[in-house]
Amino acid sequence: MAGTYTYAYTGNQFNQALDEDTSTFGLLPSGSFTANDFVTVSFTLSAPLQPNTYNNHLLSSIVAYSASSGVIALDNTDSSIQLIALQTDASGAIVDWGFNIWGDGIGQVDSNYHTYTPAGFNFDEGCIAGSSICGESQNNPGVWTLPDSDLSAPEPSSLFLLGSGMLGLAAIRRRRAAHSY
């Protein structure tokens, strides 16, 4: 069985609200999001993200996911991923991203960070379905936690390499034993 790889994102606390009906920004309204809310997302892939790549075709390799904005929580049982695009650096760390997870009748969780813009455009957002108010944190990207692989069994090539080494050691020992008499 192949391993799985879980990537987790934790955003910073919301610092403003967006009224999507009027496209105006302001203080967080009472009764919805608070300054203690923030975006969290985790997703589990069947294969690790490769270094120095732009990955925008990840939907087929996602095994499970979850997202929260403090007020709403979504996972692969009650929502769908509308967009997921990730760019990695030479070490495989996520340096550029965009995702939108939508739960019909529940709300949505978004995060975007793009280094190709002059100031490094970023926003984390949570919106409740049926409400035009969304909690946001802008220009203050959160952090990604990269996975340790969850390998339940060694790869066949590793077993082959281990077996060949053991056979080689046995052959050397046998040869030495034959020459000592």
Task: Considering the chains and any ligands shown, give keywords for the structure.
181 residues, 8-stranded antiparallel beta sheet, 5-stranded antiparallel beta sheet, mainly beta, 2 domains
Please explain how this structure is put together.
This protein is mostly beta strands. The protein has 2 domains: 5-150, no CATH class; 154-181. Helices cover 13% and strands 41% of the residues. The strands form 2 sheets. The chain has an 8-stranded antiparallel beta sheet with strand order 3-2-12-11-10-9-8-5, with no helix packed on it. It has a 5-stranded antiparallel beta sheet with strand order 7-6-4-1-13, with no helix packed on it. The radius of gyration is 23 Å and the shape is elongated. The mean pLDDT is 79.
Explain the layout of strands and helices.
Blueprint (H helix, E strand, L loop, with lengths): L4 E6 L5 E4 L4 E3 L13 E6 L8 E2 L6 E7 L4 E3 L4 E9 L5 E10 L3 E8 L6 E8 L4 E6 L4 E3 L10 H24 L2
Antiparallel strand pairs: 1-4, 1-13, 2-3, 2-12, 4-6, 5-8, 6-7, 8-9, 9-10, 10-11, 11-12
